[in-house]
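During the reporting period, our protein records have gained a structure token line. A sample record is set out beneath this paragraph:
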Amino acid sequence: MRSGEELDGFEGEASSTSMISGASSPYQPTTEPVSQRRGLAGLRCDPDYLRGAFGCLKVAQVILALIAFICIETIMECSPCEGLYFFEFVSCSAFVVTGVLLILFSLNLHMRIPQINWNLTIFGFLATAVYAVNTFLAVQKWRVSIHQQSANDYIRARTESRDVDGRPEIQRLDT
């Protein structure tokens, strides 16, 4: 237990604090509201976005990309498959990216992250797609050059094997 003097001093501090702040107790809530982070609580679909031009386009893009991906996956055999693989990659990527953007905008999640300029983000995806196409074309060109090199080696080997002067056993059969 504290002595009477200690309690008087302690109460004096408490009462003087409450007198300065104008509150009856030092344990009153602050006058400034504390913002509470809601996280993902309270997510609601924005029907205005989905009914608008951008929302309708995004829904159509997601549906068409999904249909394209399903159609490409039903093919069992192909002879030149490079174009098929590229189409599969594009349709799957379009489905995923557009689906994420549709969810992001329809739930107004882009408003919860104001540090990102979402309009410029679309251009970032376009730039990424252009770089991906460039990389794909460079790999295709590299593969063709390797294939042509191996074909040239094969032709040279076949031509050298037909050289009769270098192979006496073939000369004997001809005579």
Remarks:
- The chain has a mean pLDDT of 76.
